[in-house]
Amino acid sequence: MVAAATWHLTGCVLADVAAPAGGAEPGGSVQELPEVWVHQGRFTFTDPGLDAHELTGYVLPGLVDVHCHIGLGTQGAVDQDTSLAQARADLEAGTLLVRDAGSPADTRWLEGRSDAPTILRAGHHLARPKRYLRYYARELDDVADLPEAMAEEAGRGDGWVKIVGDWIDRARGADSVLEPLWPLEQVRAGVAAAHEHGARVTVHTFETETSGQMLQAGVDCIEHGTGMTAAQIEQAAAARVPVVPTLLQVARFDAIADQGAVKFPQYAAQMRTMHARRYQQVRDFYEAGVPLLLGTDAGGTIPHGKLAAEAAELVRAGVPVAEVVAAASWRARAYLGVPGIAEGAAADLVVYTEDPRQNIGVLAHPAAVLRAGVRVR
User: Fold this and answer.
1) Which of 14, 89, 192, 198 could form a Cys-Cys staple with 305, CB 3.0–4.6 A?
2) pLDDT by residue (tens digit) across 103-126?
3) CA–CA dist 14, 33 (Å, integer)
4) Considering the entire predicted model, what is its pTM?
């Protein structure tokens, strides 16, 4: 890494129009400015009058992955060296802010480091025994414990709680399908408990019944949303509940179905149906006005540093390029309550030689990445 006291960035600077309000729906906007300075790790629109390192191009607020898992591997929690490598992969790709959607590892030791993104942790995601991936979640034996557990995870996280809403029950054998893990009343009480502790709730949901349940319970965000019906999509749009489509993960559904087809044929059929209509599902979200955010679901089976690939998938699904770039940067920051390019904000930025709002492929090729004013790429 190369440090510098002062930077002068010119070209097209996409600066915040106004400071985002934490807890608001995705909707941040930017204005194009010709220049901005970075001094002592923070943005300023006033020339500090010092020698500065020059960078020019399209200057964006650091990218945001709202669904990944730093500290998670295929067998659960990973060691600190591996966690740091995951964080650095995100950072070097231009992802400077992460909402960690549940991890069995405590990654608070990464806070404040210039070689890792800012991480907003959701604590340990909550599931039931044998009803999720082994070693990933905190498993509750009694569904009645969900509200208390959600309150506890709210205290451990950074304003977010993650629950697993549905999974296959393998004990049903050939009749096994994706189905809800929790009674509606427990989810509703858990959401209220999390809100009382100042946290928002996001939920993993693949199948239809769970999606409806979670919207009734008042969750704040939906991960995947592959089984949502037209009526549920309209409900999410009306309530301004964002969806994180995680298309890189959904692309794996066909292979996952193949693995379970012999023992669990109905489950395999569910997964294949959701895989086949994944792009249409995202178009339906967009056309209905559901706020969309970008998440790679990295950690476990998907490598870190793949936000540009996720962005390309949303464009392939039919979401306009400029909308995808906004969702991957300033709009997600507004939703999470973290400023982008604003006076006095931490200088987390990405520079491109071309405008990614015109060509989504540009997003995969940052010319420079600065984390709190330190150049990491």
Assistant:
1) 89
2) 999 999 999 999 999 999 999 999
3) 7
4) 0.95
